[in-house]
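Figure 6 in text form: structure in, sequence out.
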């Protein structure tokens, strides 16, 4: 008479697991065409390569650039998006205008943009770049919107925007790049800029012309102030001589 041992619950559970959850074996090499060839379009392949390697230009004019520079550090690490900062506009395809743009900087910004190869993109970062910000009320040199100089793809409002906002703009730009087509690129190129329009301003003489300082009343006031000034070398004011210190004894 043979006595069959009763399996323990642990052994029964192990047998059930082995029967129902077999490990996946090594994949077998097949010769089917559908399993060895990736079919895609040239537009998708080209756009995938471009959106994964956006190279921004190291460009900043004001305090917004501090937030942009924080992306380069290890805390935010924007290299994971394939963004490699470049110092030459000929190797960059993205420019983030971080900071206020004034009229003196406008020709340099347009020159940098024109030196960048196509296709290229622009992100306007900060309120001062988008509308002039706090300088739009009393500044005579701040440009009221960088889109008057170069075409802008994305706007990041804020003063200043957080680095996470730049990430959000880059993600949206990647979606835009992924939906582009080579056949329609010519339709998207800018054909006009406000910077090329001649202004209709009338030149006027400066208000501060120096006549106030050259007036006779001012000259008399300057002469009276110089006469009583202790820095007057012609008639120096008497100065008190300090008493000698007592000798140590």
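Output sequence:
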């Amino acid at each position: 008479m043979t006595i069959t041992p009763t399996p323990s619950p642990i052994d029964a559970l192990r047998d059930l697991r082995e029967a129902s959850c077999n490990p996946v074996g090594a994949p077998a090499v097949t010769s089917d065409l559908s399993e060895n060839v990736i079919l895609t379009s040239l537009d998708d392949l080209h756009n995938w390569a471009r959106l994964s390697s956006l190279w921004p230009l190291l460009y900043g004019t004001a305090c917004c650039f501090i937030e942009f520079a924080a992306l380069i550090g290890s805390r935010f690490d924007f290299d994971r998006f394939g963004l490699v900062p470049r110092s030459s506009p000929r190797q960059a395809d993205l420019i983030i205008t971080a900071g206020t743009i004034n009229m003196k900087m406008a020709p340099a910004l347009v020159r940098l943009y024109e030196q960048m190869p196509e296709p290229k993109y622009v992100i306007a970062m900060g309120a001062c770049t988008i509308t002039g910000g706090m300088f739009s009320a009393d500044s005579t040199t701040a440009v009221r919107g960088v889109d008057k100089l170069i075409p802008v793809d994305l706007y990041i409002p804020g003063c200043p925007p957080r680095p996470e906002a730049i990430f959000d703009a880059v993600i949206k730009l990647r979606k835009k790049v992924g939906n582009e087509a080579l056949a329609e690129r010519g339709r998207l190129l800018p054909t006009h800029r406000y910077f090329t329009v001649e202004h209709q301003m009338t030149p006027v003489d400066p208000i501060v012309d120096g006549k106030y300082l050259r007036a006779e009343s001012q000259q008399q006031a300057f002469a009276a102030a110089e006469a009583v000034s202790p820095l007057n070398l012609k008639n120096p004011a008497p100065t008190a001589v300090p008493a000698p210190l007592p000798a140590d004894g």
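Caption detail: The chain is about 30% helix and 5% strand.
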